[in-house]
Specification:
Mean pLDDT: 90
InterPro entries: DUF4261 (IPR025357)
Strand order of the largest sheet: 2-1-11-12-13-16-15-14
Organism: Desulforamulus ruminis (strain ATCC 23193 / DSM 2154 / NCIMB 8452 / DL) (Desulfotomaculum ruminis)
Number of strands: 16
Oligomer: single chain
Protein name: DUF4261 domain-containing protein
Helix content: 10-25%
Length: 308
């Protein structure tokens, strides 16, 4: 499958995927998306910065998370155990989840693949901003994969808020799992609260035109990293901006409620009184992952699993 990605103009508002020049991308489902045992975020800088002293980090962490143990403190890496946020492993053994922070290093390879670089809807001039930041501070959680998704998302959002406060020079943040680039100030002004703050950078709604047809595709990328399904729409004759909003709303509902929607369920569509059928399927666009495919009623395109 080939598809055109329609680029938004520079003055386009966030999540308004219409108008502009086309670029052709190729489907490659050999790329597999996996539940992220380590969730990576990259703070990007135009100049090299120094890492805050460990006591400053420890004080901030204690204020947010309670019990904190310093696991490692070297020139290259500092890591902290969150003793009030435990993960249960085999034989009911409980181990603290951790947060890690690496020193500022040069960006060695371009960040973001060809597809991700066409999907920076929330970051005006995103590619230019990304390429103007030759320095990065990488951070992640560790041994946190067993936490409930909402708790893990809340920790990541809290940690990022702390870092953005301690690194005022940060120009942007890149989220590896969602392929989303956000200006640092947009993250500092996150409109969400609680665990939903994760959505500001951790979930990206993508938009594609299918080459040789009037079909379009919208999906989310990022929930899979927390062990939850992303959503997908293959459709025609709908305003893609409306579908993007529907995708975010559906993803938020799944996130907040532990993904209660099952195959065969229906949810409200965009049109009044419309019902759209849901089915878990393999994603149409990489990375390959199981998604909740939402058939947009009379506007649905393509075949779903089980259809002849």
């Amino acid at each position: 499958m080939f598809w055109n990605k329609r680029k938004a103009p520079k003055n386009q508002e966030a999540n308004q995927p219409v108008n502009g020049e086309n670029s052709i991308l190729k489907q490659d489902l050999s790329e597999k998306a996996k539940y992220s045992g380590v969730y990576v975020m990259r703070l990007l800088f135009k100049e090299k910065v120094s890492r805050p002293a460990s006591p400053a980090l420890t004080d901030r962490l204690k204020a947010r998370f309670g019990g904190i143990d310093v696991v490692s403190d070297t020139s290259g890496l500092v890591s902290f155990a969150l003793t009030d946020h435990l993960v249960t492993y085999k034989d009911d053994k409980k181990v603290p989840s951790q947060l890690m922070l690496v020193e500022c290093n040069p960006v060695q390879e371009p960040i973001g693949d060809a597809i991700n670089r066409t999907q920076f809807w929330d970051c005006p001039d995103g590619v230019e901003l990304l390429d103007s930041c030759p320095w990065q501070v990488m951070t992640s959680d560790f041994m946190a994969g067993g936490l409930p998704p909402l708790e893990r998302a809340d920790i990541l959002a809290d940690w990022l808020e702390i870092l953005l406060d301690l690194f005022p020079q940060c120009a942007a943040v890149y989220f590896d799992a969602s392929g989303k680039l956000m200006p640092a100030d947009s993250m500092r002004e996150n409109p969400y609260t609680g665990p939903l703050r994760f959505f500001q950078g951790g979930v990206n709604a993508r938009f594609f035109n299918i080459q040789g047809s009037n079909d379009m595709l919208v999906d989310t990328l990022g929930l899979y990293a927390l062990g939850l399904p992303d959503v997908q729409y293959h459709f025609r004759d709908l305003n893609p901006n409306d579908v993007v909003r529907h995708a975010y709303n559906t993803a938020i509902y799944q996130f907040e409620n532990g993904a209660p929607i099952e195959s065969g369920h229906t949810i409200g569509g965009i049109e009044p009184d419309s019902k759209w059928k849901c089915q878990y399927e393999d994603s149409l666009i990489q990375p390959s992952r199981v998604v909740l495919d939402i058939a947009a009623g009379e506007f649905a395109s393509g075949r779903r699993n089980g259809e002849i």
